[in-house]
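Marked as duplicate of an earlier ticket. Keeping the data here for the record.
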Amino acid sequence: MKESKDNLFPIFNEILKKEEKEILLKQNAKVIWMTGLSGSGKTTIAKGVERHLHSIGILNQLLDGDNIRVGISNNLTFSSEDRAENIRRISEVSKLFLNCGVITLNCFVSPTIEIRNIAKEIIGVDNFIEVYINASVNTCEERDVKGLYRKARNGEIQDFTGISAPFEAPKSPKIEINTNQLSIDESVQKVLDYILPIIKTSKI
């Protein structure tokens, strides 16, 4: 007999709730979703936020696009269908961390409004903090430490966001950081200024 979803019996209502884990950790769990072009500064900013949160006793987990692509999504391509599946998987993983009371820092291009709405629906609007890391294509291309823009210009990478595939900027992000103008330290501080009053429940 083939396995069927009819034979699944989830126990979500029987396990400890997010709120109970948050009491233990003395923090309010949220998913900080950083979106922007490759090279805009998402991961660099997230690493700064990660280190600061850790230094003041706030448990957090950083999820980065390249790390995910060599792990749970190593079987996916960069087609529109697989990009959506990649974001679905990331969102489900983020929700697991969220339900453990952990602050999750996500760094993903997630180029379309539709694809980010998938994430927001899975994670929950109240727990989803969208951060737009805004940098021009020219700025990202000048940084291009991975050489991806050069490869995209040469036709070696297809459907590369910002070159041969579109990026849809968020219409109303909770935070917008223009890394054309702000330094890394200033960008990190701007994220911290917004999230710390939300995620802290006591003096740390």
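See parent ticket for discussion. Residues 17-199 form a domain with the Rossmann fold fold (CATH 3.40.50.300).
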